[in-house]
Design a protein that fits this description.
Layout lengths: L46 H13 L4 H16 L1
């Protein structure tokens, strides 16, 4: 086994964050999604709920998204 010499690294100097990034056009990142596009709706549920929800949708040959929209429409119709 050979012994290699490792050169010590120089420590960075403090307070040298550098210049800020250039200003860019952010209008593309703040636009609304088209009405026919799908967007994520992150919710936290127990693993058992997710499994049963996914199984329920699969048994009816529906996507989880379609099942959620159907449930949401039904809920609003009953509670409006």
């Amino acid at each position: 086994m050979s012994s290699a010499t490792i050169a010590p690294l120089a420590r960075p100097t403090k307070g040298t964050k550098g210049s800020p990034p250039a200003a860019t056009d952010t209008s593309a990142t703040v636009q609304k999604a088209p009405s026919n596009a799908k967007v994520q709706l992150p919710v936290q549920v127990a693993p058992e709920v997710r499994r049963s929800f996914k199984a329920y949708a699969a048994e009816r040959d529906m996507s989880m998204s379609d099942l959620f929209v159907h449930m949401w429409d039904d809920y609003r119709a009953r509670n409006a």
